[in-house]
């Protein structure tokens, strides 16, 4: 089981960043890997372009702590277990976004890290434009 995280500073208030992150049904707006997303109750169905579909369960969306957590139930890659969370917090006049994940098998870290880095960089670019 591998544990990793990616983070980024964004020059916008936590409330502004949370407005985007907390809208879990629109993850495709800022995460380029996801081309379509649709909510079905607590479940998020995503299309990852030609890579296939993902079915995720949203475990929590907490407006007070500005944290969301989810697990991937179905994916085109061999995931045995995954639990991820995205947290927004105050950081030097702006915000810090931390995306933390626990995943099995460990080899999937190499796949997820660039997806997370690209997503967080895109989020920063959109919000700071």
TrEMBL record:
The lineage of its organism: unclassified sequences, metagenomes, ecological metagenomes. Transmembrane segments: none annotated. This is XoxI. It holds the Pfam family Polyketide_cyc2.
């Amino acid at each position: 089981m591998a544990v990793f995280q990616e983070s980024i500073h964004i020059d916008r208030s936590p409330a502004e960043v949370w407005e985007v992150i907390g809208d879990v049904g629109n993850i495709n707006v800022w995460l380029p890997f996801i081309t379509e997303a649709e909510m079905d109750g607590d479940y998020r169905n995503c299309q990852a372009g030609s890579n296939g579909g993902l079915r995720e369960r949203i475990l929590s969306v907490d407006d007070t702590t500005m944290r969301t957590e989810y697990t991937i139930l179905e994916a085109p890659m061999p995931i045995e277990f995954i639990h991820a969370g995205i947290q927004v917090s105050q950081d030097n006049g702006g915000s810090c976004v931390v995306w933390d994940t626990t995943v099995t098998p460990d080899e999937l870290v190499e796949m997820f890290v660039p997806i997370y880095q690209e997503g967080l960089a895109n989020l920063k670019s959109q919000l700071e434009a």
